[in-house]
Predict the structure.
Amino acid sequence: MDNQLLSQLPHVRLRPHDKYLRLIDAAQKLAPVATAVVHPCDDVSLGGAVEARKLRLIEPILVGPPTRIRDVAARHAMDIADLPIVEAEHSHDSAMKAVALAREHKAAALMKGSLHTDELMAAVVARDTGIRTERRISHCFVMDVPDHLDPLIITDAAVNVAPTLEEKIDIVQNAIDLAHALSFPEVRVAILSAMETVNPKVQSTIEAAALCKMADRGQITGALVDGPLALDNAISPEAAAIKQIVSPVAGRANVLVVPDLEAGNMLAKSLSFLAHADAAGIILGARVPIILTSRADSLLTRLASCAVAVMVAAARRESVSASIR
């Protein structure tokens, strides 16, 4: 990655995030992805798209009211003169038209702008005009936690509120596929609960055990899966040793599957605000990856989210090519 360019970007924290920088480096070796940027009507969302283009991560297609978009660009000295703009009347129309671009194979990714996530997702999951697949749609954070060796994938902390066991199968598989797209050398999935033993009174432990058996039987593929595991013995070798848990996952998990959205949200925000982690966001299970960021995200996090989408899109192209061969 061009570190000189990175140093010039606004709002990038000075704290080093080697895992994100490596991720961006890897994505820059791939082709930029045509990305429909949905309603980029503020400086944060438009600026993120412009900077991601400078780093050759995405080729933005701006979808929204042209006058508002150009006004934002002018007020913040952003050069968007050569970027295509698909005219939309308002945020709801922007979401529908961006999804249409994905359906028509004109965009290989979507990027959330200054509209509510629910508004974008309503267009994504619309029965007749959306871009759903047979997979359950789910969200993953790819977290860069200082002083932790590996990046951590946390799922699902943003889309599925209280997923059933059946829905968790897709949530787990989506996260595993993401880890492979990001070139994790080995994918180690911990199904989290409050404890590491199966307790009939705690539903999440029962579902964790079921998911592990599904992995044993090939219903979930591509990873080592273990659970239930408490957070400490999922990521700390010392905690796993104290509890005498013998497992290739315990103490070494790089994918954390939470019981529900509340647990995932609190875990991700605890890491962000107490451990100073950054959290790149991606939605999977649709026909194209969806870059989901927050206004509070640093620019580096936004760029990392774009890099994740680039690598997911590349993995999908490779999968399609392999199936044709």
